[in-house]
Amino acid sequence: MLLEGRHCQLVWNEETMVKTEDISNMADGWNEEFERSRLVPPPCQTVRLAVESHLTESQGFQLSLSRLTAAHLPQEMSEVEQHMTYQLRVTLFDRNHQQFFGKTWKSPPQRRKTNKISFHEVLYFHTSLRLPSTEVVLELVSLSPRPDGSQQAVGRGFTVLELFSNRPEAQAADGDRRLNLHHGSPRSLLHPLLKDTVDYSSLLKTIDGAHLEYVIKNHQALVSVMHLLPENVLISGNENIPGLATSPTGDALLRPQLLKMLPFTLNRLTISLQPSLEKFEGQLLQLINADCHNTKQGPEGTLKAVVIQERRLHVGVHNGLCFMDKPQVVVLEPLARSRSDSSSKQSSLVKDSSTTSPPPQTLGLRSSLELKLTNHQAIAIVFQLEFVFSAPIGRETMLSATSTSRAAFLQCVRWGIWFPFQGPVDWKGEEIQIVLQGGAKPNPHGVMVYSTEMSAKTQSPVTLSPRGSAQEQKDNMTFRLSSSLERKASSPKASLRTKQEEVSRQRRSPSSPLQGQRNILPASPPDSPQGPGLSLSQLAATSRYPTISHSSSALPWQQSFPSLLHPSPLASAHQLSHAACSGVSNIAHLEMDLQRERDASPFAQDEGAQLQELPFTPVHAPVITLGMNVPSSCSASSRSALAHLYSADFPDIIDSDGQVAEVLDPTEPVTFDPRREETDPLQGNLLVFQFLAFTRIPTVGVGPDWPDNVYFTFQFYRFPPVTSQQLKLLTSDKVQQKASTPLPCVLASISKDGTVNSGSPGLQVQFKVDESFLRPGEKRWFLRYLALHTMHIDIWDSDSLLLIGSTAIELKYMLRLGKSAVQALHEVEVLTTDYVGEDLLLTSTDPAQRTTISPMTVQTIIRGRLHVRTGNIGCPVEPSKRRAADVMPSHPHIITPCVVTGGFRGGSLSSRNILPLNARNAAQAHRLEMDVDSRPLFRRGIGSDSFLPSEHNPEADDMRRKLDCMAAVHRREGKEVAEVTGRTKEARSARGPNQMKPSEQHSKAECIANMLSQAITTQHLLYASLGSAEYVEFVLKNPFNTPQTVTVHIDDPELSVITDTEEWGYFKSLTKTPTLLEENMFHLEDGAPGPRVYVRPKESLHIPLKYQSFICDHTMALQGPSFLPTVKGSQLAKKNLSNIVTAKTIKVTFKAEDGKPMAIFQVNVEPTPHVVDQTFRLYHPELCFLKKAIRLPPWHDPSVADANLSHISVRCSDPNIICQTRMLVPGEPQDVYLKVPGSPSPLMKMFFVMVFTDKWMAAPSQIWQIYVHFLERVDVSCVSGQRSCQSLVLRGKQAVRKVKCFSSHPLEIEVDPEAVFVLPPAAVQELQLKVQPWRAGSRFLYVNAVDVENRRLVASWLLCLNVHRPVLSKAFEVCVPVGSGRGSSRKITYTNPYTSSRSFLLRSDHPDLLQFKEDTFQIDGGESYTIGLRFAPSQSPGSVEILVYVNNLQEKTEETFCVKVNYS
User: Fold this and answer.
1) Any idea what DSSP says for residue 1396?
2) CB under 8 Å to 676, separation ≥6 — which residues?
3) Rounded Cα distance, 1282 and 1262, in Å
4) Exposed, middle or buried: residue 335 (CB in 10 Å: 0-12, 13-18, 19+)?
5) Which residues pair with 836 in a beta bridge?
6) SS3 state of residue 982
7) Can you tell me the distance from the alpha carbon of 875 to that of 816, in angstroms, rounded to the nearest whole number?
């Protein structure tokens, strides 16, 4: 087996002539190494499939071949066989397209000992084609010598190694590390019978006793050297790889070490084409235009002038195997030889008599290139000269050439190569000249090269020689290469001035596009950044240089309209010459300096330069991931604060025996034992949350008594969301408050009439979770939820309806750990985040600094501490209920149709009469028991039932529930008997036997059809939640004696048939369903109503079905506290049925070939709430899209061996929202991108995001609840310390409302009117904002208009403040001692600059550190006043700058002083 390295050429020989030489030694010379490295590319369809499967990153593998057992070879060897050796040949193979690709690796010849051949070879390769169709073919070849010295190769068997197969058989073979050999040649894999064959064992004959031992595994160490090895090439570790250090063990790829890469600079590059540049390009254009003229489509006389748009040079470093880095691309410019030639020659290219510039003689590069090389003789620098041509599209005349509808194509015209380290390195700083080649000769880029008769005769080997007369007759390139470490870098400012002067010269002479390009390259050209490899999108660009046409018919104005190039991204290299469209952007030239120096003007940039992206300033608060970063729950309160807290007499958490629950320390770890929790005799759990108190923390912009009233929103497990009632923060008059150590404020509920229930402090919320609430098998998931999750809580100001902050409580301290009851006291920080911009000086003279948006930083603010007590009380469960919950079907996911043993019993034509009465009553009783017991817990709101009083008796509730269940069963049975008896008697007495109307006859026919349909209908109750897939298998039986092709009809798209075999197997293993898996069972056709399946006579088939819904109800309560009474009200709680999937009935009809139903499967979907793992609240301006990225936490699937193959996908519950995620680089963080359409203010949008970490999205790993608050945006620009006014408009709705306005920072924003005012319907009320911020920077503040009667939001505004620093008048410095216990007093003299008496106000941006003797003073004109300053003491050293504002009565700043306080 031999795979030659020619393009798309495959050669197979049974008897191959092989020279006897050591192939392990690398051949001398780069050409021989390059010829050896040529390979056959993989099928393009396979490459495209890998890209569509997101397999873009290559992965390294190690294949170890140890020993081959060849029992089929003759044991007794003849004289010829004694000299016979054996070789192992390995090649990659694509099974789907039956094509070998890559390059065949051959092992060193080995001799056979008895019946075993020891190879002990280790191969390495890397590939991105990690598809099941990618395989490795291994062939055993015997080599026998011939008289002429050659060797005869004969195949002795082969085997196939499946690299990425998911079949269990293949995985078992990998585990045994053994492959069986097959008879024949690998050419048999190309037979048409083996196409689309998954398993070859049934078609290939196995050789008895012949097998190969191997080991295949991932090799992560290969990632660092992938740039030195081509993809899909098998290579041994003992081969010499240029760029890789040799290993003393002989295996350089086991732990690869790279050779040191040194930076070099390539400059002064020029290219000379023979006989001259003008004649060379003229001849080339003449040939292309003649070819276009011969193949033109259109009327006679149509001219298609092809012109040269750009000349590009690709420069790359090659090691003989592949390019070590992506080649750089630069743009060359035509240059004249010298200035003296300008008078003797006149350009024939530009018909402009005003210019006398000589024609260009060479192509040159004005900039320099940075290359990284390593000292190895096989390292080469490869150059490729490429022209970009443009031609008109379609039917165009000469005058239409001024349009931009031109197509562009690329063509390589010359290429060259130079080996810097083959000989003595004496070229540093010297001029180097190489010969450029053309014609049909293999080259590293693998492209066709233009050739002329003269260039075809000069295809001599590349030589390095000084410039001479002989070399002048050939196409050559000259350049200089020097070490960047030794070369002194030129001054950046000088380079910048040179560029600016060059740009100014070009702008001063627009009539002569070639003027300024006539000079020889400068002696020290400016440095260029590393050249980018131009992608297709970059090639779709207009040249910034004029198009030069060597055609005699070119018009002067053609040069100002360059052509456009925009090939399709899906086009191959061959199709690039035929793709044409339009583009808009400019190409990225290396001569362009995109980094602006500090002393450069921002308006001095080149015309058409690429815009620089500025730091993005968001307009909403950042996301707090409290579920991943839980706030500190350790106690930060003092003993006096705790004593004050416990003196409030909160209700105790007691167990069923009346004992106080055991207290757990939230700072200590919890050991979770699932077995102990599941075997707990108290299977019922009453989970209690007690919100006790809230500790205020002084915050900038608000008063010390903020907040006054609060309420909470949260969601526990899959219960509906909870919105609490208003809670008052009570402060004790008996205890003296200290500013340094604030005491916690006890929470007390507020009724709807505004009265405070101070006699019952705190708020208690209860959730009951027992066997009647949990579905079978859900207990362990609930315990896992408590052990791993945190509960997100939002704290709101119930007066202003503004979000105070968020926090999270770890639920693991609610695990009872075998105890009867537990409790834990949590003191958690209430956090919020905000964007804060950098300070901007009002007097800044830099226009760029004042116009550029300042970058924003995220600031976390602690708003307070919440005191919460959590508890879990164990409750006993009745044995009857526990048995009903524990007894589960042996295979609950297999639905078998019920066999009808009873017939029609007479009476009403009702579906109830089909089944036996006793079984029906038992089912109805069980269903009613589930309805009465489970529905309130599955679907009822926590509403009033959550706020249970302390005297609640669970036993009374249990007894009442039993009585209700029994009464419901008796009522149901009595009602049915009464209906049947009454209907029969009424029908007999009302009419005679012949008095039936036609409509009644039709109704009777429908009833009969309905009864027959019910006889073949199987009903199944399915509990579904958002995003979770419910898997069932319906047993379909063919009752006929003839085979049937059954079509599956489903009337709802959320229920589907699983037709993918891999997906079916995944759900079988997930649900532990022990039925058989059948491949290719369904037949899918376009336009068919559903999949079709062939069923044999009397055969039973398992039809896999999956129900999954991503859509749910987004109904949510209005923003504001609830007014739930503190007594039980089950009717009120039942109304809260939001955020669950829709209840529905789905019918699956299995129709035979005649269109009649064979069986009906009716799925009754019962919705259940889902678990919310994380809650996000975002604020955004109204009526515009919100674009947000949320970072996913690190995740790894233990079932996937390679972490890079982990699949993460997302879905959104709102189809109008774009939600997606993409994998960037393996190992890098992954983000979820959201694009939410805007809504008017103050509406709020809520939706769910489901994150799946498995390929088939069986169940979401995370469910996020995201709230987006849309506000009306108002931009305010002001100066710190000075009042600015802004007007807002508030429009009335349909009803009269009493409205009051609130701001998030009352000390910085005042709203006029401040009191409550009446807002009539459709009226317009003007609001006056008085903004007076105290600190400079960019900030976001909020203003809410609230209906004070209903506590509902009327309007909301987002204030985007851009606060500038004021102009300072004077600066002072003062020292204050640390730890003295007393501050320091100072004085400042202020003189009234006015001639009249004035009153002034004193303000400070740090009122906690600086106080004034008098806040207001009045002085006469020209008089002076002494301002008394009192600085507060400090306990820690440091320094702070305090601004003192002297304002007038209108709060306009007259003077600003800066006082720097040093605490030492």
Assistant:
1) S
2) 817, 818
3) 48
4) buried
5) 857
6) helix
7) 11
Contact between 688 and 712 under an 8 Å Cβ cutoff? The reply is no
Nearest one of 393, 388, 328, 336 to 361, comparing CA atoms = 336
- Return d(Cα 931, Cα 1143) in angstroms, integer: 14
Please give the residue that has the higher pLDDT: either 838 or 559. 838
| Element containing residue 435 per DSSP (H, E) | strand 431-435
What span, in angstroms and rounded, lies between the C-alpha atoms of 1463 and 1460?
A: 10
> Strand (E) positions, 700-740?
709-714, 722-723, 727-730
CA distance 622 to 891: 47
3-state secondary structure of 1095: strand
Q: Residues 5, 106: contact at Cβ < 8 Å?
A: no
1016, 1157 contact by CB (below 8 A)? yes
The HSE-up count of residue 20 (CA atoms within 13 Å, CB side) is 11
Task: Please give the single-letter amino acid code of residue 237.
Answer: G
For CA atoms 771, 774, 779, 783, the dihedral sign is: negative
Q: Tell me the pairing of strands 894-895 and 1030-1037.
A: parallel
Amino acid at site 1300? K
Task: Report the distance separating Cα 1326 and Cα 1290, nearest Å.
Answer: 6
Instruction: State the Cα–Cα distance between residues 140 and 537, nearest whole angstrom.
Output: 48
Cβ contact 1040:1123 at 8 Å: no
> Three-state secondary structure along 877-889?
CCHHHHHHHHCCC
Residue 1356 structure tokens: 């909301």
Contacts of 1359 (CB under 8 A, 6+ apart): 1274, 1276, 1286, 1309, 1329, 1331, 1340, 1341, 1342, 1343
1299 touches 1354 (CB < 8 A): yes
- Cα(669)–Cα(479) distance, integer angstroms: 69
Judge whether 1388 and 1404 are in contact, CB under 8 Å.
no
Beta carbons within 8 Å of 1307's beta carbon, 6+ residues apart: 701, 702, 703
Q: How far is CA 95 from CA 197, 212, 230, 244, in A?
A: 8, 21, 21, 33
Q: Which long-range contacts (CB under 8 A, 24 or more apart) does 1144-1147 make?
A: 1144/1052, 1146/1050, 1146/1051, 1146/1052, 1146/1054, 1146/1055, 1146/1107, 1147/1050, 1147/1051
Cα 1058 to Cα 1078: distance, rounded to the nearest angstrom: 12
Do 711 and 725 form a contact (C-beta atoms < 8 A)? yes
* Angle of helix 954-990 versus helix 917-939 axis, rounded to 10: 130
Which carries the bigger pLDDT value, residue 212 or residue 604? 212
Q: Do the Cβ atoms of 724 and 765 come closer than 8 Å?
A: yes
pLDDT 10s digits, 1198-1213: 555 454 456 789 999 9
* Exposed / middle / buried, residue 87 (Cβ in 10 Å: 0-12, 13-18, 19+): buried
At 298, list the tokens: 């259109």
The CA distances from residue 831 to 94, 445, 632, 1087, in Å, are 57, 58, 10, 56
Q: Where are the alpha helices (H) located in 565-673, listed in sequence order? A: 639-646
Which residues have C-beta within 8 Å of that of residue 879, sequence separation ≥ 6? none
Closest CA to 364 of 429, 268, 436: 268
Residue type, 23: I
Closest CA to 686 of 467, 1068, 957: 957
pLDDT (mean) for 370-388:
90
pLDDT score for 48: 87
**346 against 1403, higher pLDDT:** 1403
Pairing mode of beta strands 1262-1279, 1352-1365: parallel
- Backbone φ and ψ for 243, nearest 5 degrees, come out as 100, -5
The torsion of the CA quartet 1019, 1020, 1026, 1027, rounded to 10 degrees, works out to -110
* Structure confidence at residue 952 as a pLDDT band (50, 70, 90): very low
